[in-house]
Amino acid sequence: MLNLHLTDRSALPAYMQLYTQMRDQIRSGGIPYGMRLPSVRSLMQQLGTSKTTVESAYHMLLTEGYAVSRPKSGIYAANPFGASQPAPPSAGTDRTLSGPLPKGPAEEAHRIDFRPSAVDAQLFPMRSWRKMLHDTLDRSGEKINKYGDPQGEYAFRTVLADYLRNSRCVVCVPEQIVVGTGIHYSVGILAKLFAGIGRIAFEEPGFAPVREHFNQYGFRIEPVPVTEKGISVEALEQSCAEAVYITPSHQFPTGSVMPYPERERLLRWAQTKNAYIIEDDYDGEFRYSVKPIPSLQGLDRDGRVIYIGTFSKVFTPALRMNYMVLPLTLVEKMNNVNYLFDGPSRIDQWAMQSFIEQGHWYRHIRRMRKTYGKKHHRFIGLIRDYLGEHVRITGHSAGLHIQLTVDTNRTSGILVERAAAEGVKVYDLQEMWMKPVPSERPQIYLGFGGVSEQQMEEGIVLLKKAWEGLWEEA
Amino acid sequence: MLNLHLTDRSALPAYMQLYTQMRDQIRSGGIPYGMRLPSVRSLMQQLGTSKTTVESAYHMLLTEGYAVSRPKSGIYAANPFGASQPAPPSAGTDRTLSGPLPKGPAEEAHRIDFRPSAVDAQLFPMRSWRKMLHDTLDRSGEKINKYGDPQGEYAFRTVLADYLRNSRCVVCVPEQIVVGTGIHYSVGILAKLFAGIGRIAFEEPGFAPVREHFNQYGFRIEPVPVTEKGISVEALEQSCAEAVYITPSHQFPTGSVMPYPERERLLRWAQTKNAYIIEDDYDGEFRYSVKPIPSLQGLDRDGRVIYIGTFSKVFTPALRMNYMVLPLTLVEKMNNVNYLFDGPSRIDQWAMQSFIEQGHWYRHIRRMRKTYGKKHHRFIGLIRDYLGEHVRITGHSAGLHIQLTVDTNRTSGILVERAAAEGVKVYDLQEMWMKPVPSERPQIYLGFGGVSEQQMEEGIVLLKKAWEGLWEEA
């Protein structure tokens, strides 16, 4: 007999008491998975309660997957997240899912993952960041109990504006900056400020998540081809777009960099069409062996550029902090639209302000740039050594990823598959296309930020093994 | 002669070099506000540059407010944020604002602010939170360089699910929880999940920011009157709403609590109409001298309730962290809609997980409840002592604010004004109405979370002084 009790003194109704007690016992193992649960009638008798009570509790357990019903046999305890678990029986209720619940983030199955978004964990400035948090909490005093400025802490934005001017030639005052939690946060705000705009051009291939996000907000997407000089301004000029999203410092995913003349032409387009340019400078801080090109925003004299930057690459994606610099017209518009904001923790903003003010930030960037420069050099060297003339490396003048064009007549899908079979995760450029077109040679992109030099070598050796035999005959 | 230099070796074009140098000198005081700047011609000569270069730089300085043009006199350096600063001259460009830029959050002008959203700064568990952050960073290891689960850290959601079950009778599994940065974040996600829903009912009066946010997303708002038992379910049944946003544990702003029978009736409405109920339990942890009523979500057997809670009241609004519990149907829908998320810092989520797991959270809530219970008791006592029979107190069984109905024939606006003249900020209930109706007696709401007991007494004494003479003749 199960250990179950109903009481009048609970705030919960009887069916809820029964449901929670049984569920908790299933969760804790008190009722083991697979055990047959008492029949409705016997539980009614044991607890002296109504049929409705027992049936309601069972109904909840069934629809949440803590129990499964086997026809002509009874109801059995089950692990709702068990891999071998059948989907909960459809009881025709709203609570029933068509499949098992997702199980949280899947465990990484690859030994080596050339994930473009990963950064180097060893480089995180653990000691100084801990000190910043510590000191910031010490000094927070009465500020700690208030909401603060939804656009971001003003003093933090002041420090950010200085950094952006010094490092990225971004011209702005703190009033133009919106501190956020990531690119989707920024896009959410832009979607409101862009009321009246119908069509947005995107690089093709381009960063699919942002494209999809704008699409969800109801904008029409116009794909515009990417050349070795970034987005084709000529093609953009032919389009009907009223805004464009680009990654001119290091195009995602191809890695191309937009040269100065193209930038000027793009700005002229925006000025003529009264269009907006969203400049996503996601990894503009990292640049190797080429003269830095200032941000588009800094070249813009007509308030057409929205600049977006992030702490995810230079600092850590775990912090979830980014910023957007709006032209003054959009600042004005923003001030008339309330309730846009739920930005990052004030405490983190205070800590980051100190981190920058005290010089840690600049030192950290220099260190990152140096380490990534070294890793980048090594990465290119390894690819040349092991994959040789079978691949062409492009997009490697900046950032944390490169593009490979592979000399084979197989598809990029095959290349990804073969690599995966050797335990190496590489990324298919096709997936970043809105309307994929078959390219003459398959293209793959790989990030080197999150792998150690040793993993890097191991990964490239495995790639050689995976792809050998696929090479096009010379 | 100003210290300005142009060089070919800069990454910036000449006009940008000139602009940034002049602006930085104006900012640093090298060029004092009010100083007349050189004429275009003389700068051209000094720098050996073109007219376009100088004019472009001046144009940027003018439109950003670092310079002002005085007709027939010249161009003068200016403080773009100076109070006595005239608006930048309209040069017919997109960069010109119609007024001066906002200056960041305004300084609080009131001596005592009964702000309903403020919490007690003294109660923030500084030591233990610092320790959690410290330990969490120590243990973060390789996790620190990855994005993590956009829905929120899975282990944190597991701990949250347990807390919600134990404390608020919320029935859920971690897969149903979405960790966010605040109510606007949650509303942004719901707005997408509610595709197909046209009308949402709101409490009238109700929490205006959420109402306005849904309105901005294109939903039709149906105001439904609030009684002493929360939203009028009877009126809701007459409406065409397909969803309703409510604060049943402590209605905002009136403070009424929805009794059990009304909750059951509301759930029946949702089941019959296939409608959703958004339960915002913003301060449900605080409850005085009344038996706790479990969350609506815990009573829901049909997956109609979305539960939203926050760390802003019990912990601190500075953290910007909240959570939403979705019914399983919406979880399924959510899993099919990508790119919704940019939640709070992973580091903060790990720290909060430890804070809860190690028991700090429960201790903290008990301490908060005790302190707020005491403050609440004192607050009611002071109001009765000083304002006596001239006011009626309602909505005081829970939460961090109460409602006053004042015995006067003046408007609530007058009451707020008179209070402000004495340095006390109180809040006008009218502002939370969608379509304000004149009430027989004006209504004011006051929060006591953010004021000390001493400020509380001082504030009530000043309120008596402010409102004396306005009382209705007996």
UniProtKB/TrEMBL annotation, chains A, B:
<dbReference type="GO" id="GO:0008483">
    <property type="term" value="F:transaminase activity"/>
</dbReference>
<keyword id="KW-0808">Transferase</keyword>
<protein>
    <submittedName>
        <fullName>HTH-type transcriptional regulatory protein GabR</fullName>
    </submittedName>
</protein>
<keyword id="KW-0032">Aminotransferase</keyword>
<dbReference type="Pfam" id="PF00392">
    <property type="entry name" value="GntR"/>
</dbReference>
<keyword id="KW-0805">Transcription regulation</keyword>
<feature type="domain" description="HTH gntR-type">
    <location>
        <begin position="12"/>
        <end position="80"/>
    </location>
</feature>
<dbReference type="InterPro" id="IPR004839">
    <property type="entry name" value="Aminotransferase_I/II_large"/>
</dbReference>
<keyword id="KW-0804">Transcription</keyword>
<dbReference type="Pfam" id="PF00155">
    <property type="entry name" value="Aminotran_1_2"/>
</dbReference>
<dbReference type="GO" id="GO:0003700">
    <property type="term" value="F:DNA-binding transcription factor activity"/>
</dbReference>
<feature type="region of interest" description="Disordered">
    <location>
        <begin position="79"/>
        <end position="108"/>
    </location>
</feature>
<dbReference type="InterPro" id="IPR051446">
    <property type="entry name" value="HTH_trans_reg/aminotransferase"/>
</dbReference>
<keyword id="KW-0238">DNA-binding</keyword>
<dbReference type="GO" id="GO:0030170">
    <property type="term" value="F:pyridoxal phosphate binding"/>
</dbReference>
<dbReference type="InterPro" id="IPR000524">
    <property type="entry name" value="Tscrpt_reg_HTH_GntR"/>
</dbReference>
<dbReference type="GO" id="GO:0003677">
    <property type="term" value="F:DNA binding"/>
</dbReference>
